[in-house]
Structures are given as C-alpha cells and as structure tokens.
Amino acid sequence: MSSMKDLLLIVLLHCLTSGRGIESNPIDRYGLDGESFHLDVEEHNNLTFKRFVWRMNSNIIMEYNLKTQDVDYYKNEEKLEFDKKTFSLLIKNLANTDSGLYKAETVNDDGVVIHVVTYKLRVQAPVSKPVITNTSDSEGECNSTLKCTVENGTEHSIAWLGNGINNTITHRRSSELCLDNITCKNWPLTCYAENKVSNSSETVEALQCERPSNSALQSNLWLILSVGIIGIITPIIIIIRIFWIKHRNKKKEEYLVKTTDASVGETNQSITTEYDVVRPERMNRPTDLPPEITTIYATVRKTSDKNIC
C-alpha cells in the first residue's frame, strides 16, 4: 500500500516539475486532402516563453526561439509554415499521413514545459458525386430498387432524402432503397453523400409514376387561357360585326336615295322631251313643200336709231 502511495507521489512531483500538468482532451479537426490547414493558438498574446514547440505524435516538428525570433528547427520546411505573431502552424498539401495528434508547448527560462493546446487532425478525401442506378427483380424481396454508389470519400455517410423519407447509412460505398412502398408523393428522391470536409448529391425524378396533380394543373391552365382568349376575342368580333352591319345598311340607304333621285330626273326629262315632240303647232306644220320656190333679194339700208324711232 505504501509503495502505491510513493508511486503516486513520484508521478505528481514529476508533473509539477515538468510543468505539463494534466492535458485536456484533444480538439477534433478535419482537413481536406490536398488543401492547407491552420492549427491556431488562442490567447497567444498572453503567452510568455523562451521557446515555442509544435509536436506531432510527440515528435518535434517545429521549434521557435523568441529571443532570436527565428525558427531553429523545421522537420519539413516545404510542408510547414510557422506564424511568428500568432504562433499558429500551417500544414500545406494535406495527405493522409498528416493525420495525428498535434501539440503546442512553451518552454520558459527554467526549462519548464507548459502545454498550450492539443489537436487531433484527421485528413479526409472529398466524396465523389453519387451514381444512382435502378434495378428490377420480380423474384426478390424488392421488385424495384434504387442503388446509390459513392466511389470516393473518407468516412462518408449516404442518405436517401425525399418527402417523408430520411434513410442514412454511414461508412459504406453504396446504399439501396426499395421502391415497392414509395408513392408519388415521396418523389423526387435525392442521394446525399457527405463527410466532415465535403458533400455531394444526385436527384432522380419519378420512375413510372404519374402525377395527376401536375397534369390536371396543366389542363386547367390551358382551359383558363382558352376561355380567357375566347372571352376577349368574342366581344371584339361582335362589336366589329355590329359596326359593319350598320355601315352596310347606311351605304345601302344612301344608294337607294341616289337611285330614286336619278329616276325622278330621268322621268322629268322624258316628259319634257315628250312635250316638245307633241306640241300642236309643230304638228300643224305642212309636210309638203310648195311646188316652186322664189328667191327674193332685198336691200336693207342701215338707218340710225332716230329714224327707227
């Protein structure tokens, strides 16, 4: 029993002298494969130290000297970049091998190491676009099945989404959905794939599913448009017809008046001409000429007006 107490005392003294203390749980972080990622240090303005150290899985990957304000050590200078103002670490061109525990520590003038923050970084590949296929099996448990396949992606999940449908499967390359119990109201259906760093989806419309509501709406729309057009055109045609009939009747009346006037004029002229023809004095004129015609010549002397009077 005493040996156990001594062991605990030794461990406690070691923690106090080293300055590390009990570390908090690591903070989960997810990075996209091929991209860069920042590991930040909060409250960096309150830190006092001689050296600043970043570790990956307990191995030093960067060491900064505050006095010289230079980075004394880089494990991979092309891969890592240290910010001297915020003490954050930039990891470039992430790969799966960069996944691990990253710890930030400070070392004071007495050589005491103080824990600052710990991150658990997971590098994930982006999910690829889902591919949906339809298969039929009349002898199987399901007559018709939709299969959604996601070829690429790290630790991704696949979900079927629709009206009243939410079916999620994690960490599998494909997911199947039986259509036997799917009705028209559930369409369209979407296969949604995601992980911590990316997402993608594909939607399929109804397969062999009539949508009477849409058809009825379309028919009603055409009916409304047709009735509206007829309702507008019909009064216009009626008005034009009325004006045309009135105009035609008016022209007909004018034509009849002119014709009557012309007939009356022709009748008067005929009466006048007939009257001229049947005058009695002309009818009493002898029709036979005298047997002998004697020509008499006379001289007429011009006299003045006074003599005439």
UniProtKB/TrEMBL annotation:
SUPFAM superfamilies cross-referenced by the UniProt entry: Immunoglobulin
Major localization class: membrane
Domain Ig-like residues, every copy: 126-205
Membrane-spanning residues: 221-244
PROSITE patterns with a match to the protein in the record: IG_LIKE (PS50835)
Signal peptide per UniProt: 1-21
Record-level GO cellular component terms: membrane
InterPro entries the UniProt entry points to: CD2/SLAM_rcpt, Ig-like_dom, Ig-like_dom_sf, Ig-like_fold
Name the UniProt record assigns to this protein: SLAM family member 9-like
UniProt organism field: Acipenser oxyrinchus oxyrinchus
Lineage summary: Eukaryota, Metazoa, Chordata, Craniata, Vertebrata
Gene: Slamf7
